[in-house]
Amino acid sequence: MKYVLVTGGVVSGLGKGVTASSVGVVLKACGLRVTSIKIDPYLNTDAGTMSPFEHGEVFVLDDGGEVDLDLGNYERFLDVRLTRDNNITTGKIYQSVLDKERKGDYLGKTVQVVPHITDAIKNWIESVSVIPVDGKEGPADVCVIELGGTVGDIESMPFIEALRQLYFSVGEDNFCLIHVSLVPVLGVVGEQKTKPTQHSVRELRALGLTPNFLACRSAEPLLEATKQKLSQFCHVPVGNILNIHDVPNIWHIPLLLQNQNAHNAILAQLDLHNVATLPNLEEWTSRAQKVDGLQDSVRIAMVGKYVGLTDSYLSVVKALLHACTACSLKPSVDWIAASDLEDETAKLTPELHAAAWKTLKSAACVLVPGGFGDRGMKGMILAANYARENKVPYLGICLGMQISVIEFARSVLGLERANSSEFDAQTPDPVVIFMPEGSRTHMGSTMRLGARRTLFQTSDCITAKLYHNPEYVDERHRHRYEVNPEMVDMLENAGLKFVGKDESGQRMEIVELQNHPFYVGVQFHPEFKSRPGRPSAPFLGLVLAATGQLGDYLSQQQNGSL
């Protein structure tokens, strides 16, 4: 196994995940099979119990793993399907070591960070790196490892030491270290400053790791003099100093690496020239150029709880980008805090309330994504009501589907107190209920998680046609609450059709409203399986409906021209 380690310095949020993904894309374009591992040094066992404001969205894998959003980048860029073990956390490592200690596996030894924790990290990396993630048999050729945080963080020290030991054990021909750093420009001087990177590399070297490559983040391309200076003080050849400057869209990053001959340098470092081919990035090139050239846009109202941090809905935003690109459009996402639509806001801050409603009414479609808790719930119901009554295309995801059911029960069935038991445990009309198998005492990994099959109840529904499959679809889930099956008949008789159900027929998965251009709710999270060039069906349907193209699209598909 060949390993490519991506570390970061100076500041967090430099784009290590995109850099690691792009390195994987370039190597894959050279005919190599690539897998990925993300190391998160926090003590949480996984990302499942963290607020989106803490760490961005929680990405869900096929096996139900709740992981860091960077694994979503890996899956989208590399078109692979990772497992929960591809995300290593301090919590997982310590838990595994302590479990072994309790069982007596260490035979009376004093359990220490070195060697027991570091050995556990190395063993985890070596065992996970050979798991195939691309649907083929046998292990990958290269494993790209991203170490979260920045070099020097106390919490990442055991991982740095374990990776140093791994480098020593596998040898320099099987290990390549890329250090991502920042080259800022001070406004007063206007000079590209190398000192932050010098200090970061010095700290990395003091810990026993010497970078083979520097991936320098900057606003503008690096000057040759800057590269020479970095090379001199960081002991990295000029040809191995990669500049990842700001670009119009992130699909340019693999092309940036290719243009700087990064693939050849990495292949040489890993002694892979004899098995690699010339890179084929034609698809990436055309995709990046297409996005750059898009002129027309579609306005999408995103009504959610966590709109203050766009990373909270990263996969939703990417799925919208994939769908819009397929329609030759640019996504123009209008972020609306759901609470701003509520009557209480009209009393306290009328300007905010008026602006939110103006934004909602000027959008071509409405999207209500997932979330937990009752904050903003009233605003989401108002948004769903507006979309339903005014025949504005609407897509509700997870909570967004439940919101559409609650709104329908209140407005159409006249059940004024209809609600979810999550928001009102005493509601006389619980249209959304807690799932029987859920835990009320433990939060982590107790939801309905991972890939589950949804069976279409009719092949004549919009979603079945969009999925190009009249029978079923497999999508990823993350929820504790579900539509109350005892209320289904009443809702369906009034025109809200549950066109997708689970294999038991008791769990509602997809809802569509009759006599509406596009009013769809899905209990699953289709955004997690959206890919560049293969947009998620519900998102594609939303964009097509928002631009008046859905009818033609479905007709062409029915006639066999799609």
UniProtKB/TrEMBL annotation:
InterPro entries linked: Class_I_gatase-like (IPR029062), CTP_synthase (IPR004468), CTP_synthase_N (IPR017456), GATASE (IPR017926), GATase1_CTP_Synthase (IPR033828), P-loop_NTPase (IPR027417)
A GO term, aspect molecular function: CTP synthase activity
Stored SUPFAM superfamilies: Class I glutamine amidotransferase-like (SSF52317), P-loop containing nucleoside triphosphate hydrolases (SSF52540)
Keywords recorded for this protein, A-Z: ATP-binding, Glutamine amidotransferase, Ligase, Nucleotide-binding, Pyrimidine biosynthesis
Known pathway: Pyrimidine metabolism; CTP biosynthesis via de novo pathway; CTP from UDP: step 2/2
Stored CDD domains: CTPS_N (cd03113), GATase1_CTP_Synthase (cd01746)
Catalysed reactions listed for this entry: UTP + L-glutamine + ATP + H2O = CTP + L-glutamate + ADP + phosphate + 2 H(+)
Domain CTP synthase N-terminal: 2-272
GO biological processes: 'de novo' CTP biosynthetic process; pyrimidine nucleobase biosynthetic process
Positions of the Glutamine amidotransferase domain: 309-542
Superkingdom of origin organism: Eukaryota
Keyword Transferase among UniProt keywords: no
Gene3D superfamilies for the chain: 3.40.50.880, P-loop containing nucleotide triphosphate hydrolases
EC code(s) of this entry: 6.3.4.2
Function recorded in the entry: Catalyzes the ATP-dependent amination of UTP to CTP with either L-glutamine or ammonia as the source of nitrogen.
Family under the similarity heading: Belongs to the CTP synthase family.
Listed name of the protein: CTP synthase
Organism: Heracleum sosnowskyi
